[in-house]
Structures are given as structure tokens and as C-alpha cells.
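Supplementary Methods, section 5.1.

A reviewer requested that the exact input to the structure prediction be made available. We therefore reproduce it here, unchanged from the version used in the analyses.
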Amino acid sequence: MIAARLPRSEISTVSARKDQNVSSPEYGEWPFLGLLKELGIRCDPQLLDLALTHRSYAFENGGIPTNERLEFLGDAVLEVGVTDYLYRAFPDKPEGQLAKLRSAVVSTVSLGRLARRLGIGPRIKLGKGEERTGGHDKTSILADTTEALLGAVELSSGLPDALRLVHHLFDPLVDEADRSGAGTDWKTVLQEYCSEQGLEAPRYDIVGSGPDHNRRYRARAEVGGKLHAAYTGHNKKEAEQGAAQLAVAALIPPRTGA
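The structure derived from this sequence is encoded cell-by-cell as follows.
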């Protein structure tokens, strides 16, 4: 069933790896697999392996298939699941607020945090160059791999199980984002905080890197001459917003319940 839904190039790669098992020592005690077992959701071992194959690893190993197609599928599954929950959980919120909440929950930052909690980073297959630059903990790679794993689950167990996994992982994140005011302009929040505290306006230093087709920007947010956060994004706006959000988290004590 799975092979019939994969391109021939991916079928050959999957078949070549069919002796691998997700419970093998290679994966060890992996929180992500433990969660799947807890939920009674199956993930084909070969699709799991494919979902963990970054393009840098594929390039160094003869151009084997990468996880990018699974990432494409998983992105769609994630959006459907989160959108469904938002629509049902917040019947009084207008479309604009729902869209902002969704953007916050499925952002690269949010997916990266989730990936770290699920222990995804150490399992990603990277090329040597990407490994040397800390790719196993790079937020963008973690986020992309998380989506690829959702795609692998959808192909293995079907859309209902994949959505069940999305709801289990992301419904609490949606609720948390709503409580914390996610979807707001974090640069404005940081600016207002500095004004209230009599501090200088935040300063952002941005450095771009990488080829034109895969450009990354790293923003450093400084308040009072001190570095409070740094974040890497796909564009300058994302990088600044991410750095501002992390700076807010570092500077402003979390709100406690009444």
C-alpha cells in the first residue's frame, strides 16, 4: 500500500532499507516513537528513515531521496489539523485572529521547540558539513524534519491517525499561544516594555548567510547594550520577530494564574 503511493526512486530506497526497524539500537529510546506507541499509531520504518534524511546527507550519498516531499505533505497535514482545532475551539474569534494564532503555532520557532522536546535532532541524517555547523540543533532543520515525520505518519497510518497526532501535539500549543498573546507583534511588545522600564529602544543586528536560493538571516536583539536573544529566520522580518519574542521571554516574567 505504501509503495504504491511512492515514486519509483523512493520505492527503491525504501526497499533497500527494509531490514531496518524503528525499535533498533540506532533509534534507542526516542520520545517521538514512544508517543506513537502510546497513541497506537504506526509509522513505517522505511518512511521514518526517509523522513530523517536531510538533503545534505542525500547529496553526500549519491543523490538518494530526501525528506523534502514528506515535509511538503506533513506541512499540509499540520495546517489542516491546527486550523480545524482553531475553528472549533474559538467560535468567537474573527478570521484574522485565528490566522495569527495559527502562524504562531506552526512557525519555525514553535516547531523547533517541539522537535527538541521529542528528541528529533540527534536522529536527523545530515551531511558532514551540516553536522559541523550544528545542524542537529538548527531550528529550521528541526522544523522541516518535524513536518516530514508528520508526512511519514500520514502515509503509514492514514490521515485520521496523522491528524490525531497533530491534535495531541498542537492543541495544547494553540491554547498556550492564545493565553500568552501569541500572534502579536513582538517587536512592538519589546519596544513598549523598554519604554515602560525607562530603557533604550531595542537594537537589532542582522547578518545574512547562505546562497541566494536558501538565504538565512540571524538577528541579535540587544537591550541596554546587552544581548538578550538571537534567532535565525528565512527573512529579516522573521529573524527580528523571533529575536524579539525570545528577548521578551527573557526579560518579562511569565504571567501566573489568579
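The beta strands are 203-209, 216-223, 226-233. These observations are discussed further in the main text.
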